[in-house]
Design brief:
The complex is a heterodimer of chains A (119) and B (110). Chain A has 119 residues and is an all-beta fold. Chain A has strands spanning 3-7, 10-12, 18-25, 33-39, 45-51, 60-62, 70-75, 80-85, 94-101, 106-109, 113-117. In chain A, the strands form two sheets. In chain A, strands 2, 4, 5, 6, 9, 10 and 11 form a seven-stranded mixed sheet that branches. In chain A, strands 1-3-8-7 form a four-stranded antiparallel sheet, with no helix packed on it. Chain A is globular and about 40 Å long. The N and C termini of chain A lie far apart (40 Å). Helices cover 0% and strands 44% of the residues of chain B. Chain B has strands at residues 9-12, 18-23, 35-40, 47-50, 64-69, 72-77, 86-93, 99-101, 105-109. In chain B, the strands form two sheets. In chain B, strands 1, 3, 4, 7, 8 and 9 form a six-stranded mixed sheet that branches. The chains are: A mainly beta (119), B mainly beta (110). Chains A and B meet through strand 5 and strand 10 of A and strand 3, strand 7 and strand 8 of B.
């Protein structure tokens, strides 16, 4: 069964850092692009970042709201995806979802991990 | 990249049909046939319902259908059932490995 498990969320002060992880199973991780999507409390979905696969040079792209602060990465040997979040702001408070990217849609989603940025 | 425009809410009675619109620009919805739709029940992760404008993933009922005209995509849910009550989000590829979501629409089954 295809499965994504998000982890690493928690409470962090403004200006702090946090690293999210996503463990993938049930599919050939190396073949797929992967993305992070977030959802602030009571709000809609916001695409955060995308990383391509090895044939596409592991290219990373970011939403303007996180560019320069967040870094998406992957470890194909461990079937894992990460999101390093620095200089966190209160507006980064959200549930963060790891998603499998089928090139034209996000076809598998993790259960989400909550990040709260507050003093 | 601005969010795609969706109506905040739609409603319909069981058995009826409803349509949710998703309006973008020529740089996203109008520029690519890569519009997808997601269903989200409260407290749950989103689920892919439609991809590439009108294709259904395996397991999604054919009561769900998608279309696009110009810069506006639409999701139609026919034969409404109680379990269809959820939030629905559209998404479009916006070029340069970027995606953009709509603001979401709450579907209420009366």
């Amino acid at each position: 069964e295809v499965h994504l498990v998000d982890s690493g969320g928690g409470l962090v002060q403004p200006g702090g850092s946090l690293r999210l992880s996503c463990a993938a199973s049930g599919f050939t991780f190396t073949n797929h692009y992967m993305d992070w999507v977030r959802q602030a409390p009571g709000k809609g979905l916001e695409w955060v970042a995308r990383i391509t696969n090895k044939p596409s040079s592991y290219t990373a792209n970011y939403a303007a709201s996180v560019k320069g602060r967040f870094t998406i990465s992957r470890d194909d040997s461990k079937n894992s995806l990460s999101l390093q979040m620095n200089s966190l702001r209160t507006e980064d408070t959200a549930v963060y979802y790891c998603t499998r990217d089928a090139f034209t849609a996000l076809d598998v989603w993790g259960q989400g991990t909550m990040v709260t940025v507050s003093s | 990249q601005s969010a795609l425009t969706q109506p905040p809410s739609v409603s319909g009675s069981p058995g009826q049909s409803v349509t949710i619109s998703c309006t973008g620009t020529t740089t996203d919805v109008g520029g690519y046939n890569y519009v997808s739709w997601y269903q989200q029940h409260p407290g749950k992760a989103p689920k892919l319902m439609i991809y590439e404008v009108s294709k259904r993933p395996s397991g999604v009922p054919d009561r769900f259908s998608g279309s696009k005209s110009g810069n506006t995509a639409s999701l139609t849910v026919s034969g409404l059932q109680a379990d269809d009550e959820a939030d629905y989000y559209c998404n479009s590829y916006a070029g340069s490995n970027n995606f953009v979501f709509g603001g979401g629409t709450k579907l209420t089954v009366l």
